[in-house]
Amino acid sequence: MESVARLSSAERRELFAETAARKGMTPAIVEKDFWVCWTLGRLFAHPDLSRLLMFKGGTSLSKVFNLIERFSEDIDLILDWRVVVGEDDPLAERSATKQETMNKAIDAKAVDYIGGELLAMVALAVDPVCRCDLAADDLHALNVMYPAAFSDTYLRPEVRLEIGPLAGWMPFDNYRIKPYAAEAFPQLFKQVDCAVQAIRAERTFWEKATILHHEANRPKSSPQPLRYSRHYYDLAMMAAATVKDAALADLALLEDVVAFKQRFYPRGWAQYDEAKPGTFRLMPAEHVLAAVEKDYVQMRNMIFGRYPDFAEIMETLRTLEREINSAEVSP
Q: Where in the chain are the domains?
């Protein structure tokens, strides 16, 4: 990918435009996809960063596992919390009050680390092709600014790295990813792919499912965050793949995800104790259904493959909810 990164702006523009024509995408999406992959390649080729970071989330579902056909322009990364907690064990048993105090301390230390040592390492890793700065609107995020050949109203000419320490690392594995441009024109690349380490899709399945359970229990007085329809789409797509069977066969992983959220993201109203077979909820509450559908329609331009209508998404999730609730729990 380095050879393409160092092409002239005009040459990259031609490559991305031709790829877009073949793939049925916009040139700006093809371009950003290239820089997402290039950035991940630089991060995981760095000896220190590769030990500190883990790739997760929606972009991994698309680029690593090919489970969704949704363009996700941000990169979700887990920061190894050992660099900010020292000898303290965040998983040790402690009272809810002490756990909350520790969670806040970890978050505060992570903000300092991200804006200091980590920023310096990432900036060096992407130099001199790109520039990296701390995001002005989020102290947990870094923005990698790339040399854009296209402009798009909806796409920023930067790759956002959203970084947090409070996330589970297991299970994970090593994978290789490639940009759409390399799929379309492999002959133009000296190296078509790059290595990453990422959370396995089974954990992301349960992470997404528990997000929907959380949202199903959200009280009317608490508005749903923006752009949450992506979680409904992502889980529906995963429900149609073999990862669903692997996840349903690993209910211990669900228990781990739930326990992690109860410890680090406690919400009494989320009713995480009911996020188990028999009482699991995926369907949005009636009072937010229209808002979720509206958000999904607005996300249309980010889905580059088949665009299932909202009713299909809901029916798929309704079926999945029944499957989860009828899953057999090991004694």
A: 2-199, 201-325
